[in-house]
């Protein structure tokens, strides 16, 4: 242990952090670029909202499937080799997307992208929790929050400008050189900081988790097109639920599980993971629905829909490092309660949209909503992982990221399905007001989810990271 600490101290931490943050930034930027471009892609390929939202949900679903495998990959391969491989896969996917002749090929490219991106965020968080002591993790995770927020700040605005003036494929040509430069820097700067234990991978678990998460997502996504009574919808959800149940039960029997569900024995980790899932559903869901509402129902340009998102995302980015430092001093409880209160109120303010709702109103409400999210996202993640012992952190990171990505993909699918199903008319002659009714109902559902998160936040402990560390040390001493 002392040798490991000494090795960490000798690392050029700033270079490693810069390479990891760039990789995280480019993968999230790629995700948020699609939000404003979806209406144009719908027109180019002649597809519906329910089909187009797969561009977002398939990316998050594959992310969710890849993340559990990442815990195995981190313990099998060196940090440097794994990061360069992940970025290379992501870059290949970006090239496929850029040249895709059909919507099917575009989706295939998104799957390849997500296979690489799904490794990067858990790897980044695991490395950060390895190289930073517990009392500095809040500030370190604040940097992660800055990247996760800054990418959505420029993503939709850049996307809006590009699709208004150039073909949407240019978005991927912007991503490719950034990814290639990061691979080059990683080759020289990245060092090996994670420990290799060479666990065995359980192929059946990977198959079961893929069928489970995929079945649930396909079922919820297809409900808007086929209706909730459809055999495709009901069958997919049942198959997904059964596969997922078998997958979870199997993990308890394996000596080296793909996902370590025993981390949920920790109450703090469980509560913070559920809150993180709710917040991520609200973030990705709204960033998918609002551009569709603005461009297809309210007459705004792609650039205006991107500009609407930008101030809130910048505010969230600015606040993330500040929130991280506040968390290091006071813990997560009051930050989370305040943030979720703001998020619940502002989500409710989106339930009365119309064709005359102003850009100023949308921008201010979205900005305050993102300000609230900045108080929740990284603090609950850090608090949950801080409550785990060091050997469980890779599993906690994998579980936390998996649950958030899967929740966001299924949550977005549900919200888009509610939006299309609750519209008063979805035919060719439907008026914008009839379509907007569905958007308002979707935000009522999102408000209910935020309220559940707010109630759960009162169950969090009010301990600081320093107190958490003292508690962990006491437990370790008692065990030895």
From TrEMBL:
Keywords: Cell membrane, Membrane, Transmembrane, Transmembrane helix, Transport
Residue stretches in coiled coil: none
Residue intervals of the Major facilitator superfamily (MFS) profile domain: 16-465
Keyword Cell membrane found: yes
Xref: InterPro entries: EmrB-like, MFS, MFS_dom, MFS_trans_sf
Topology relative to the membrane: Multi-pass membrane protein
Localization in the cell: Cell membrane
Transmembrane segments: 12-34, 54-74, 86-108, 114-132, 139-158, 170-189, 201-220, 226-249, 269-294, 306-327, 334-353, 359-385, 406-424, 436-460
Record's protein name: MDR family MFS transporter
Organism: Aquibacillus rhizosphaerae
